Every structure is written in C-alpha cells, then in structure tokens.
Protein: Ketol-acid reductoisomerase (NADP(+))
Organism: Galactobacter valiniphilus
Amino acid sequence: MTQMYYEDDADLSFLQDKKVAVIGYGSQGHAHALSLRDSGIDVRIGLAEGSKSAAKAEAEGLRVLSVADAAEEADVIMILTPDQVQAKVYEESIKDHLKAGDTLAFGHGFNIRYGFIKPPADVNVIMIAPKGPGHVVRREFEAGRGVPDLIAVEQDATGDAKQIALAWAKGVGGTRAGVIETTFTEETETDLFGEQAVLCGGASQLVQYGFETLTEAGYKPEIAYFEVLHELKLIVDLMVEGGISKQRWSVSDTAEFGDYVSGPRVITPEVKENMKAVLADIQNGAFADRFMNDQAAGAPEFKELRAKGEAHPIEETGRELRKLFSWMKSDDDYTEGAVAR
Ligand code: NDP
Ligand code: MG
Ligand code: MG
C-alpha cells in the first residue's frame, strides 16, 4: 500500500515563516486561501486588474494585490487561475518576481507536465492537488474534516520542498484525510484520463445516450431523467462508501443481475480500446495541444461544444424538474442555463 501522510507527518512551521500568495480566487483559489488563512498563514491574493473575484476576497478580509505585486512580496506562490491562462500569467506577472529559494506551487500539473511553464532551476516547484472541487475542499475544512490531497515535488531547490508541500496540505485540511505523494506526470495524466474517460466525458455521454434511448422509444423525458441522471448520484455514493460491491449489495437482485449481464453489453471491450486511445493522446500531448491551441484562437471549438452540450434535451427537462426539488440548493457561482460564461 502506498504511503499516506497525515497530520503528524506535516509541520505548518514550514509555511508560518513565509509569505504566501494565492494567484486566482476561484473554485480552488478561495478554498486554499481561506483555509490557509484560518490555519494561521500569512496569505495575500493576486488578481488581474478589474478582477470579478477581488470583491469576494476582500469581503473575507483578504488582501488583494496585482499578480506581480503578490508574487514580488511572497516566498510561496500558488497559481490557481484556470490552466489555460497560467502560462500567460506566469510570463507576464510572476517570472520576473521569483527570487532564488522561492516556491512555485500548482493545484494541477498540466502546465509543468506539458512544458507551458518552465521555471528557473533555483526555485522549488511543488503541487498540492486536492481530490475534490474547491467548494467541497472549503466546506470540509470548515467542518473540521478534509479532502485527500496529492502532493508532488518537481524541483527541490531548498531541500525542504516536500515539507513545504506537506505543510500546505495540512493548512488546507488535506492531512486530516490523507495525502499521497505523486509526480507531476502521474497526477496530470491520470487526472486528465479520469475526467475524460470516466468522470466527466464518460459519465456525461453515458447519461445522454441513456436519456436518448428512453425518450426516442416514447418514454416520458421526466421519467427518463430520474432513471438515468438523478439516481446516478445515489449509485455513485454507494460506490464511494463501499466500492462497486456495496452498490451491488444495496440494489435489488434484479438490478444486480442486470448489471452483470447488460453492463458489458453497453460498455464493450471496444470501449476499453477507445480509452487507451484517449490515454495515448494525453501521454503524447495531443490533447494538451488541442486544448491550448483552441484557447489561443479564442476557444471556438470549446465554445461550440459547450453550446451543443447545453442544448441537449436532457438539460431542459432537468431544469424544469429541479425547480420542484426544494431540497436541492444550486451553487452560488453557477447560473443554470447560462451558455455564455
Ligand atoms: P477557476 O476557473 O475557478 O479560477 C478562476 C479564478 O482565476 C478567478 O479568481 C479569476 O479571476 C482568476 N483568473 C482568471 N484569469 C486570470 C488572469 N489572467 N490573471 C489572474 N487571475 C485570473 O479555476 P479552478 O479553481 O477551477 O482551477 C484552478 C487550478 O486548480 C487549475 O490548475 C485546476 O486544474 C486545478 N484544480 C481545480 C479543481 C476544481 O475543483 N475546479 C480541482 C483540482 C484542481 P476573475 O474573477 O477576475 O475572472
Ligand atoms: Mg482535472
Ligand atoms: Mg430503477
């Protein structure tokens, strides 16, 4: 079993003697910054001129500076802007403010793994990647718990880069749950694969095909929505609690038998071959280049695919049904049905 790090393996003093900058105050940025602040760390926020998130950070009592000023002041600089803008932000506002012995930190290995950011040799390069969305990371911290983190050290210029990463993980609650050490390459490739093949890409396509199959056969869209989307969470919760076995134990014998006989008919061995092709494109950089080239051109492919996804009939059905679900609270940052973001 891979070694796990917990509270006693991490020492906050590796951060307490330093000035920390969190660049970006979005999903991950607000979670890291607020929890570090609550852990007694000296945190400042770096944002672009006219940033929409500046007011939110200031309302929490955080100091907001330009990215360049925050990077200049800080000894540890965590870049938590969207992946596609990190290289530009680094070139324009961070690179020239790094001094020997500083630490550059990331919440995901993308820009280091694919070489879009190339830090100088005399700074530490570390990663602290919580395995959960930022709002859950923050909520768990406030509840006295934590979301597991991955940490990695790409460059160790000061000899204590790993201690700094562990201290950061402790400051955001990660060591309460458990921390695993990985590499930038392993984290990036497995993270992209998981979200593309299974979690986001695979699950979304599976749900859409299920909904289409039922509605095209004449069943009511509302019923189809419940059967292929709404209940997915209940099934996934069981998997997370006790593996696929607990899910199969909890459902009816009818459902369990149907799982065995029809699962492999739907997800055929060909699907595994497709997954291998997706992984190959992640490993050889083709996906990263496609994403970054599209972004550089103003994201035409991204915008087209997003609009197409939002126009799928399951979205309209869900929007109407969820109005009836008084127990469901949507995220403050998310506006349903907003195609343009
Ligand atoms: P978000 O999209 O939530 O980040 C938005 C923040 O970045 C806003 O504060 C925004 O400011 C700021 N920002 C955008 N562009 C710039 C810029 N040019 N200069 C300065 N600030 C800018 O990002 P995420 O939190 O989703 O992702 C951050 C990192 O964390 C990524 O590396 C991601 O892969 C990783 N990660 C994300 C997870 C998640 O839960 N979302 C999970 C694990 C890792 P404004 O308000 O002005 O637009
Ligand atoms: Mg990811
Ligand atoms: Mg059922």
Remarks:
- The longest helix spans residues 232-250.
- The beta strands are 4-5, 19-23, 42-47, 63-66, 76-79, 103-106, 124-130, 149-155, 179-182.
- The longest strand covers residues 124-130.
